[in-house]
Design brief:
The complex is a heterodimer of chains A (95) and B (485).
Chain A (H helix, E strand, L loop, with lengths): L4 H10 L6 H18 L34 H5 L5 E2 L2 E2 L7
Antiparallel strand pairs in A: 1-2
Chain B lengths: L5 H10 L4 H15 L6 E4 L1 H16 L10 E5 L26 H8 L3 E6 L37 H8 L5 E6 L5 H7 L2 E4 L19 E6 L2 H11 L29 E5 L9 H16 L3 E5 L7 H16 L18 H12 L2 H14 L5 H24 L2 E5 L15 H5 L6 H6 L3 E9 L2 E9 L4 H14 L9
Helix pairs in contact in B: 2-3, 5-6, 7-15, 9-11, 9-12
The chains are: A mainly alpha (95), B alpha/beta (485).
Chain lengths: 95, 485
């Protein structure tokens, strides 16, 4: 399975990872090799097989709708790169 | 003291021969003096350790001690520790000090154990050699005297090296595709990957959520059982955790193995395994026969598909889990972002290492529009086929035995330029994670002076039986007591 330069660039945007031009060739090779490895799956007959999400087929539990956690905004924001007035700061989005 | 097991240290403390403060200080002094050779720790939390030791001595004086009270150990740097930096081996979390404890961390605290610090690991647990850590590679204590620097395995390589080098008697690990068992094997220690859902994943930084499982790494099966007594249990904070009674894992260690039915999966004794490794593993299995076990060949016909399924499922789940590292709420943020997109893309390009980015990109590709069914859904179907093989095998036998890794510890730099060759390192361990069953690595011999691990695989929730089988083996062999040469 080959993966093209265009595929790498598209996936990098989706993954929000900046990929420099000089890295693309190495990624084409590495990702191509990984996808070759993965292509063995095609040989398996899985027509009547249910996909497995949890080894014990457990399903999501529901909990009672009651307050269990208290607000710890200050503790959580103390480790943020940039905050102001209890808000997280990011570069301007709207001009 | 540094050669003693957790069980022995616990008895020393109980007898009053040593206080936890004295013991902790001895271990800290040794750790600081010796770890330059191994780089097995990312953070040593001396101040907090001594505070925990003082509290442990007070608990003991008040008659409230458990088996763990005052005993030193370490956490893999993937478990969040309130107030102590938790990096997950990544630059992304270089300055991350969690405001909360993982459930596993909290459990050890409640038992009165003394955490000396956080052990090195492959970045975000992605690797089989510990060379992908932002904090430098870990060196295996074995083989050092010959002048070669060998890998300790990964991703829990720091924990394995630290236990093997007698820096700590025990350490936590996590295992997504072999990350407890393979480093345990390569460093000659005992490790257990529990059943998926047996140990809470809350506060354990996520790599592949449907595969990740925390577990014990120690020198003896008895110590691993003592760790399981603390680690296992239901946790409402982990929605995939299983609500099921936790046995006392030490209670059944001494049960005889007479009549134990052992299956040898023929696919795991293939030409991928070096003849010298195979000889050691077969010798170990003969010890089990002497203990009264019977052996038969079994087949896991879909095991050959495990690596392929894993390298869809694990990267796909990783790409989703690691999307949280966006430079907004915690962790690394790039300098002078010019807009929001620039901030995201440069933060992630600069904060993640090569292997992590590679897996995020593979996972993103596998989950992207038009590919989901062909990759992720297909892999999940193959996963069920692999699980069914194990279910069928356990209708015939009690446990399966196999090698853990195809070769002993390899040299640093030998495999880290080719991702696929590194992935094949986990060929005997990965199917177990896909099935969600428990498995152990037990020291079972030496090849060229390097440790060989025996893998013991069990049915769901059979941890007590695996620990019993490992403990009985350790009563008649001394591989687990060998010190690195």
């Amino acid at each position: 399975m080959t993966i093209s330069r265009k595929d790498i660039e598209k996936v990098a945007v989706l993954a929000r990872i900046k990929v420099d031009d000089e890295q693309v060739a190495a990624l084409e090779k590495d990702l191509g090799n990984i996808l070759d490895l993965v292509d063995q799956l095609g040989a398996a007959d899985t027509d009547s097989v249910e996909p497995m999400a949890h080894p014990l087929d457990a399903v999501q539990r529901l909990r009672p709708d009651v307050v269990t956690e208290t607000n710890q905004r200050e503790a959580f924001q103390a480790i943020a790169p940039a905050t102001e007035d209890g808000l997280y700061l990011v570069p301007r989005v709207i001009e | 003291m540094h050669n003693k097991s957790v069980a022995e240290l616990s008895r020393e403390l109980e007898s009053g021969k040593v206080s936890s403060v004295e013991l902790t200080q001895q271990f800290l002094d040794r750790l600081k003096a010796e770890d330059g050779k191994y780089n097995s720790f990312i953070t040593i939390s001396e101040e907090q350790a001594l505070a925990e030791a003082r509290a442990a001595d007070e608990l003991r004086a008040a008659g409230k001690a458990t088996a763990w009270t005052g005993v030193p150990f370490a956490h893999k740097d993937i478990f969040c520790t309130n107030g102590i930096r938790t990096t997950c081996g990544s630059k992304m979390l270089e300055n991350f000090v969690p405001p909360y404890d993982a459930t596993v961390t909290a459990n050890f605290k409640a038992a009165g154990a003394v955490c000396l610090g956080k052990t090195n690991m492959d970045e975000f647990a992605m690797g089989s050699s510990n060379e992908s850590s932002f904090y430098g590679a870990v060196t295996n204590p074995w083989g050092l005297s010959s002048g070669d620097k060998r890998v300790p395995g990964g991703s829990s390589g720091g924990s394995a090296a630290a236990v093997a080098a007698r820096l700590v008697p025990a350490a936590t690990g996590t295992d997504t595709g072999g990350s407890i068992r393979q480093p345990a094997a390569l460093c000659g220690i005992t490790g257990l990957k529990p059943t998926y859902g047996r140990v809470s994943r809350y506060g354990m930084i996520a790599f592949a959520s449907s595969l990740d499982q925390g577990g014990p790494m120690a020198r003896t099966a008895e110590d691993a059982a003592l760790m399981m007594n603390v680690m296992a249990g239901y946790d409402p904070k982990d929605s995939t955790c299983i609500d099921r009674e936790v046995p006392d894992y030490t209670a059944t260690l001494n049960e005889p193995l007479k009549g134990l039915k052992i299956g040898l999966p023929k696919e795991y004794f293939s030409d991928q395994l070096s003849p010298a490794m195979e000889e050691q593993v077969r010798n170990a299995i003969r010890e089990y026969e002497k203990l009264g076990a019977t052996v038969k060949e079994v087949s896991l016909p879909n095991a050959r598909l495990a690596i392929a399924a894993y390298y869809v499922i694990a990267p796909a789940e990783a790409s989703a889990n690691l999307s949280r590292f966006d430079g907004v709420r915690y962790g690394y943020r790039c300098e002078d972002p010019k807009d929001l997109m620039d901030m995201y893309t440069r933060t992630r390009a600069e904060g993640f290492g090569t292997e992590v980015k590679r897996r995020i990109l593979v996972g993103t590709y596998a989950l992207s529009a038009g590919y989901f069914d062909a990759y992720y859904l297909k892999a999940q179907k193959v996963r069920r086929l692999i699980q069914q093989d194990f279910i069928n095998a356990f209708k015939e036998v009690d446990v399966l035995m196999s090698p853990v890794s195809p070769t002993p510890a390899f040299k640093q730099g030998e495999k880290n330029t080719d991702p696929v060759s590194m992935y094949l390192e986990d060929v005997f361990t990965i199917a177990i994670n896909l099935a969600g069953i428990p498995a152990m690595s037990v020291p079972a011999g030496l090849v060229d002076g390097l440790p060989v691990g025996l893998q013991i695989i069990g049915d769901y929730f059979s941890e007590a039986r695996l620990l019993n089988a490992a403990h009985q083996f350790q009563q008649v062999t001394d591989w687990h007591q060998r010190e690195p040469q």
